Amino acid sequence: MSKVSASALRDDFFVASPARLPRIVELHAVNAADDAARLLAGLLARDARTDPKFFYDAQGSALFDAICHLDEYHPTRIEAAIFRDARVAIAREIGREFPAGYQWVDLGCGDAAKSRDWLAAVAPRRYVGVDIAEAWLAPAVARIAEAFPDLNAIGVVADLARPLTLAPVLNEVAEAPLFFYPGSSIGNFEPPRAIAMLKALRQLGGGRGGVLIGVDCESDPQRLEAAYDDALGVTAAFNRNVLRVANRVLGADFDLRAFAHRAWFNEVDSRVEMHLVARSPQTVRFQRPHPAERDFEADEVIVTEYSCKYTPASFAALLDAAGFRRQRVWQDPAQRFAVVLATA
Question: In terms of pTM, does the model score above 0.85?
Fold first, then answer.
């Protein structure tokens, strides 16, 4: 469970008006009609499914932030500890890999808080914040510009779920890109899609770039299922919130109480699966983008998220398949999480 990007659905959850406004480049305009068609197609499919991006409207974002503070949810806490304890060593390695300077490209940056903790240590020539929600992106990049006045800071409106088209922006300067992708967000992509995304990042770097990425390595089913089905029920509310989003976006009539939250660790595919399970037979009607209806049988499932887990070796194989040959790994003492610096 990770924010793959700030969704366009996050409307006015966070708005600020800093005095110094950054340059914002719009590569992917928010397309509500396309989003609605995509959401409806997934819900009408034989094996119903939604994309994780639809979790993150204002309410979903608030619930996710609460999840990150739960005792059961380990990735945020452990990654932050690795960043803190290994920051000097990681910054030193980045300097060795990019002696001529580089661009720090913050993928799915949200409020850019994780990057703000890094920028003083790594001293890039340029900051590029990438997110789909301009309402979040503009103030976040503005705060980066204010905190680091000598840093060239720019925001790019782009959807990480679509093919990346960052080249026009990245090629404006000579420095290679270092893509920052924390939070184990790569786990939301099944391995073939993860390889495709990593390969796209390598190609954007022109063979000179790299990635600094967080990877969830937890493999204990009991801990994982607790992390995705916490005792307070916050994750259950977060999961069912996608039905509230569907009701708003599609004019649907989902009864949130009629679906149960389920999270389980699929040991064969090494992933946590989050489902919404119909408690009884029911028919759901949709008004947009065109009238439709879908029957759900009792115990029928809507898959809302896969969260893939890796060992350092299995993730290294993904990076190698994408063309990132040089890799350094930092882990917590229990080896439940990894931060990986990989270059082409």
Answer: yes
